Amino acid sequence: MAITLPYVPETITVHLGAPNADAPNVTVNYVDYLKNVVAGEIYPTWDVSAIRANVLAINSYALNRVYTEYYRSRGYDFDITSTTAYDQSYSYGRSTFENTDDIVEELFDTYIRRQGFTEPLAAKFCNGTTVTCEGLSQWGSQELAQQGLNSVEILKTYYGDNIELVSGAPIRGIEPSYPGTPLRVGSSGTEVLVMQLVLNRIRQNYPSIPQIEPDGVFGPQTEQAVRTFQRVFGLTADGIVGRATWYQIVRIYVAVKQLAELQSEGLQYYLLSWAPQTLHEGDEGVQVAHLQYMLDVVSHFAPEVPHVAVRGKYDESTAKAVSAFQHFAGLPESGEADEATWNCLCGCVEGIENAVLHVRMIQYLLCALGTEDVIPDGRYGEATRRAVARFQLLHGLPPTGQCDDATWRALVRACNSASETV
Description:
Blueprint: E1 8-9, E2 11-15, E3 25-29, H1 30-41, H2 48-67, E4 80-81, H3 98-107, E5 111-114, E6 125-126, E7 136-137, H4 138-146, H5 151-159, E8 163-166, E9 171-172, H6 190-203, H7 220-232, H8 243-256, H9 286-299, H10 316-329, H11 339-368, H12 382-394, H13 405-421
Parallel strand pairs: 1-9, 2-4, 6-7
Antiparallel strand pairs: 2-3, 5-8
């Protein structure tokens, strides 16, 4: 439901026409899809830096469509269209070019994102001559390349200085977020946990939706939150998360986080969306509160960083916590939250939140299988290690106590089998 880290799909399904057109779908290898689009969008004779900039923009745009489930959340059975009126040019069977193919092979797992955000940038582009847009100009990129700009400089010219490249994205098959069967009272597991977390985020914009304790169990509290959500958004208020409700939750989540378009800049890990400024002792406001919240998150995992109360006032205790974090991160200990401190702090909290969510999912799966000595607290402690090792031993895996990919898949299979026998 658009809260995991982005990945490169093994394949992508393209609708050969406008979204509502009576046209066929084709499912093709993702890298081959990129090669096809690049061959149709730009010229192979352009300077290398211009080609690289365009490949990165094309890839980021396609990955954004996959990551946000832009079309699938609207009921379509494809990931992207072939028409430039909606997406980017794809022509089934089109010939490609060796030099642009080589660049695609190099960059297919690299995408653009806003600093401090998760999702690939919905990097809009146009040819810059017959059509202009709020994004990259393809012919303009060639002109900048001829002036000596490299690909990153070209991208920053069009998308702003606050972008960065992410390399080495993992590769896996597309898995639609809808779990395949409705969630209702009595359901449990990862999908329920994800749904609870997302509903809690939506609640920030729609406070009539009750708060849920995210425990991965679909109980009366969750049912009431689902019913309220359904009433707010004109769905049958039956308290069951079927396909229609699931994807309405996806759409509203995308809307409140402003994920879908370039102007929205992407999914942030935190609750606010702005460019942080340098903060000093004596400052007040929401940015200070945001800073204090992140410092407090880090304090639970780095004992050298003291606990901070989230009050929105940059007091002496906040300055001391900032200095302690800077020492922890190897930054100059100024006590001021400058750009380097913000960036490092955001990265730390991002890593912590991802790790905690993953660990909690492992713990909920173990609990669903009857493990009684594991508490889903997000900490991979000794009890969790012992439980994982016991599970591995029972399922013919090396009892390392570490939840690698094979163990994770076995946990999911075991939980699915257990739920089918209930």
